[in-house]
Design a protein that fits this description.
This protein has 150 residues and is mostly beta strands. The chain has a single domain, classed as Deoxyuridine 5'-Triphosphate Nucleotidohydrolase, Chain A (Distorted Sandwich), CATH 2.70.40. It is 7% helix and 35% strand. The chain contains 2 helices and 11 strands; from the N terminus they run ββββββαβββββα. A 4-stranded antiparallel beta sheet has the order 2-11-6-8. A 3-stranded antiparallel beta sheet has the order 4-9-7. The protein has a two-stranded antiparallel sheet with strand order 1-5. The radius of gyration is 16 Å and the shape is globular.
Length: 150
């Protein structure tokens, strides 16, 4: 099962559920929840108000839309985002999908509320035959898998 949900806390801001642009689009387009101003050389988190449920053996890969770099001078600061299936409904942030955008232009850039910024593609992944995860439970996002190992 794969499904996008609104995060209850952000419902009043009217988040946009991700959609595919055409019948043959592989990516689901994500939109900015609110307007965000990003100064030159700055990284800002852009919230979506969205979470995703998927099968245990799947991940959602997040890529910048091609227009983000060409027209806006923005890119994902982590190049590609990886949303794991156990990120959904985690205790820290309910699985909120958030994008860290970096402004590589020499001028201030504005991301508009509702503007399509990134796209997510679902993929299945494989495990090694001797796979032994270090942690049983997720505690959040952005580096959280290292927190249990400190």
């Amino acid at each position: 099962m794969r499904k996008f949900y609104l995060i209850e806390k952000y419902r009043k801001l009217n988040p946009t559920l991700p959609t595919r642009a055409t019948n043959h689009s592989s990516g689901y387009d994500f939109s900015a929840l609110e307007e965000v101003i990003i100064e030159p050389g700055e990284i800002k988190f852009v919230e979506t108000g969205i979470k995703v449920e998927m099968n245990e053996d799947e991940t959602l890969l997040i890529f910048a839309r091609s227009s983000l770099g060409l027209k806006k001078g923005l890119m994902l600061s982590n190049s590609v985002g990886v949303i794991d299936s156990d990120y959904f409904n985690n205790d820290n942030n309910e699985g909120h999908i958030i994008f860290p955008l970096y402004n590589f232009k020499n001028k201030t850039v504005k991301v508009l509320k509702g503007e399509k910024i990134c796209q997510g593609i679902f993929v299945k992944y494989l495990k090694t035959s001797d796979d032994k995860p270090l942690n049983n439970n997720r505690v959040g996002g952005f580096g959280s898998s290292d927190k249990n190992n400190l």
